[in-house]
Amino acid sequence: MSEQGNVIARPRSGLGIWLDQHLYSFVSSLGRVLRRPWATLLTIGVMAVALALPLGLWLALDNLQHFAGNVEQSREIDVFLKPDVAAARASALATELRGRADVAQVELRTPEQGLEEFRRTSGLGEALDALDDNPLPSLLIVTPRNDDTQLVNALRSLPETDQLQHDAVWRQRLAGWLGFGERLAWVLAVLFGTGALLVVGNTVRLDIQSRREEIGVLQLLGASDGFIRRPFIYLGAWYGLVAGALALGLLSAAATALREPLAALSASYGSGFALSGLTAQTAVGVLLGATIIGWLGAWLVTGHFLRQTRPTET
């Protein structure tokens, strides 16, 4: 029992000590980042550009995929019926095709609807009014459900079919180019991500060299490798987090600069396409990935340094 008026300090738990050490490393590493603004800005800037380049390519490919036309429209099969096919038969044929398992949707466009659309888009209203008869046939716009090879052959063999239009080759080539671009984006992401990791590692290595004597004293006093490594790991994580945020800012600035001319270009093609940016989930993923890259670079460098400078037992 203690004397009255005295307070006995209870020893802190292991968890409390561990949290205190992490909090100290967290704050001290942030202080080291802020104390060297120019060196920090240079490191973060290089990392941000390395992260923004593959992200920008991936975002451009995603927008290109939307600009090329939606997926359903690129898969449509246009079936032009023979001129002598009556409207009732065309409607019945559309109903029959809707019952097929490999057909997702069928749209019937009558000759009158086709002529009205052509009148609206071509600007040849007076010339069309001079025609005695409507020369346009009935049109079935068929959207396949999955693989459309067998369906194309079936539609071509219909007795009512006069002509079939299907851009399968173009669609396959476009899909191939987009697939190649996506693979290229991943390759660049790995290369530039490795470059960002090396940048962080080199920056942390220079910081370790400047504190070499301090680290040596801590090792002689029996400090664990985890205690010595922790501030540098947080330093690398700070570099990665801020670089990821800057990369997102660069992409947002680029999107803002391109949005207006791209909207004017798409309007000239009669499209309402608008440039889309990264979603909130993707942005969070970028920040998390950049932080992990910074953490990993610092962890590798400090681990290598500690293995080389660990005091030898005598």
Automatic annotation (TrEMBL):
<comment type="function">
    <text>Part of the ABC transporter FtsEX involved in cellular division.</text>
</comment>
<feature type="transmembrane region" description="Helical">
    <location>
        <begin position="184"/>
        <end position="204"/>
    </location>
</feature>
<keyword id="KW-0131">Cell cycle</keyword>
<feature type="transmembrane region" description="Helical">
    <location>
        <begin position="38"/>
        <end position="61"/>
    </location>
</feature>
<feature type="domain" description="ABC3 transporter permease C-terminal">
    <location>
        <begin position="187"/>
        <end position="308"/>
    </location>
</feature>
<feature type="transmembrane region" description="Helical">
    <location>
        <begin position="278"/>
        <end position="301"/>
    </location>
</feature>
<keyword id="KW-0812">Transmembrane</keyword>
<comment type="similarity">
    <text>Belongs to the ABC-4 integral membrane protein family. FtsX subfamily.</text>
</comment>
<keyword id="KW-0472">Membrane</keyword>
<dbReference type="GO" id="GO:0032153">
    <property type="term" value="C:cell division site"/>
</dbReference>
<keyword id="KW-1133">Transmembrane helix</keyword>
<feature type="domain" description="FtsX extracellular">
    <location>
        <begin position="76"/>
        <end position="159"/>
    </location>
</feature>
<dbReference type="InterPro" id="IPR003838">
    <property type="entry name" value="ABC3_permease_C"/>
</dbReference>
<dbReference type="GO" id="GO:0005886">
    <property type="term" value="C:plasma membrane"/>
</dbReference>
<feature type="transmembrane region" description="Helical">
    <location>
        <begin position="232"/>
        <end position="258"/>
    </location>
</feature>
<keyword id="KW-1003">Cell membrane</keyword>
<protein>
    <recommendedName>
        <fullName>Cell division protein FtsX</fullName>
    </recommendedName>
</protein>
<keyword id="KW-0997">Cell inner membrane</keyword>
<dbReference type="InterPro" id="IPR040690">
    <property type="entry name" value="FtsX_ECD"/>
</dbReference>
<dbReference type="Pfam" id="PF02687">
    <property type="entry name" value="FtsX"/>
</dbReference>
<dbReference type="GO" id="GO:0051301">
    <property type="term" value="P:cell division"/>
</dbReference>
<comment type="subunit">
    <text>Forms a membrane-associated complex with FtsE.</text>
</comment>
<dbReference type="Pfam" id="PF18075">
    <property type="entry name" value="FtsX_ECD"/>
</dbReference>
<dbReference type="InterPro" id="IPR047590">
    <property type="entry name" value="FtsX_proteobact-type"/>
</dbReference>
<dbReference type="InterPro" id="IPR004513">
    <property type="entry name" value="FtsX"/>
</dbReference>
<keyword id="KW-0132">Cell division</keyword>
